[in-house]
Write a structure and sequence with these properties.
By secondary structure, the chain is of the alpha/beta class. 39% of the residues lie in helices and 17% in strands. It binds 4'-deoxy-4'-aminopyridoxal-5'-phosphate (PMP). It catalyses: (sulfur carrier)-H + L-cysteine = (sulfur carrier)-SH + L-alanine.
Length: 406
């Protein structure tokens, strides 16, 4: 995979006079030339407002928009009319919360979330709960970060109407047992919302095989531009949902006192679209497919195995969640004893290494783990074994530089 580093111009930028070791891929990924060029070509050659102009250029813009939707649909194993373009995972989740949650949930119903959810898959459900009276019920991982069958049995009941969970947590990096969750959801008659923001860069997400009702992700964590997101929804569910945002392009006809709405997916795509972002997302998917998902998985597994071993061997480090690489994808969160996570991140930065420190938009999980914050290192396709070595060696010095014994 080393060869592909040349595909990512930003990786040759110097940070603090040192080569950039970019290890904040869970926050956002760098973009390959295939994506940058596709976006530039769209704006140079095909830019117009899709669905509006009758002229040839407008037809090309509409084609770029719909071709991108088809590529995303094929990628998820969904049909094109089940794919809605949004700004990001957050907007996709809000769309489901407002157009499904508020419309179809009521007092007495239960919404099941994991305590490890990112705020964007938690705060919208708090709004739904407040507006509808439906109760929020939390799944708590065991002390290795796994959701157990007993916990699922206890929390998913005949009152459960909706389960919203991240396939991979942005802190623990651990894959949840989605098959067990969907099976219980089917028995309970509940819908499943799968937040794939942290899983989609690392694995094929086949929405039909998983049999989830909704799935969301952000393009920018999948090597595509910022500002483009995806919502997948089963067609029969999307069809019965009212619009989320209203205005131009999502209508059938508009009269002074009333309007009719377009068919899905256009019903959920109000206003001018981010076609450049859609084209960039399609290019990212084609690029990743051309690398091969088995290659991506094997490469990332090697990096995770090496990093987890390196971290486990350093004294005074706490890793959050199961330190085995088997069910982990891309993300490791940890703390260095007695050192504030921001200090750890700053010291690593002085060696050109970018990691994230903070609560990572998962404050309920921080409370559950009884910490305020932690350091998160996260890997992408272009990271190398040398990156991991440099990171581990730099981390070994952190306690010493802060005046503590090793
Ligand atoms: N869910 C998870 C698990 C995430 O990690 C993130 C981003 N950190 C989001 C949702 C929200 O993504 P965005 O900010 O791109 O909408």
């Amino acid at each position: 995979m080393k060869i592909i580093r040349d595909d990512f111009p930003i990786l040759s930028v110097l940070e603090n006079g040192k080569p950039l070791i970019y290890l904040d891929n869970a926050a956002t990924t760098s973009k390959p030339l295939a994506v940058l060029n596709a976006v530039e070509t769209y704006y140079r050659m095909d830019n117009a407002n899709p669905h509006r102009g009758v002229y040839e250029l407008g037809a090309r813009a509409t084609k770029a928009h719909e071709d991108s939707r088809k590529i995303v649909g094929d990628f998820l194993n969904a049909s094109s009319d089940e794919i809605v373009f949004t700004q990001n995972a957050t907007e996709s989740l809000n769309l489901i919360a407002y157009s499904y949650g508020i419309e179809f949930l009521k007092k007495g119903d239960e919404i099941v979330l994991s305590v490890a959810e990112h705020h964007s898959n938690l705060v919208p459900w708090q709004r739904v709960s407040k507006i509808t009276g439906a109760k929020l019920v939390y799944l708590y991982p065991d002390n290795m970060g796994h959701l157990t069958e007993e916990e699922l049995d206890k929390k998913i009941t005949s009152k459960t109407r909706l389960i919203a969970v991240a396939q991979v947590s942005n802190i623990l990096g651990i894959e949840i047992p989605i098959d067990s969750i969907v099976r219980r959801a089917r028995n309970a008659g509940a819908v499943v919302v799968l937040d794939c923001a942290q899983s989609i860069p690392h694995m094929i997400v086949d929405v039909k095989a998983l049999d989830v009702d909704f799935a969301v992700f952000s393009g920018h964590k999948l090597y595509a531009p910022m500002g483009i997101g995806v919502l997948y929804g089963k067609k029969d569910l999307l069809d019965k949902m009212p619009p989320f945002l209203t205005g131009g392009d999502m209508i059938g006809s508009v009269h002074e006192q009333s309007s009719t709405y377009a068919e899905v997916p256009r019903r959920f795509e109000a206003g001018t679209r981010n076609v450049g972002g859609e084209v960039g997302l399609a290019a990212a998917i084609n690029y990743l497919n051309s690398l091969g998902w088995e290659n991506i998985k094997n490469h990332e597994k090697e990096l995770m195995t090496q990093a987890l071993k390196g971290l486990t061997d350093i004294p005074h480090i706490t890793i959050y969640g199961d330190p085995s690489p088997d069910k982990r994808h891309g993300v490791i969160s940890f703390n260095v004893e007695e050192v504030h996570p921001h200090d750890t991140a700053s010291l690593l930065d002085s060696d050109g290494i970018t990691v994230r420190a903070g609560h990572h938009c998962a404050q309920p999980l921080m409370e559950y783990l009884k910490i305020n914050s932690c350091v998160r290192v996260s890997f992408g396709i272009y990271n190398t074994k040398e990156d991991v070595d440099i990171f581990i060696n730099s981390l070994k010095n952190v306690r010493g530089l802060m005046g503590y014994g090793s």
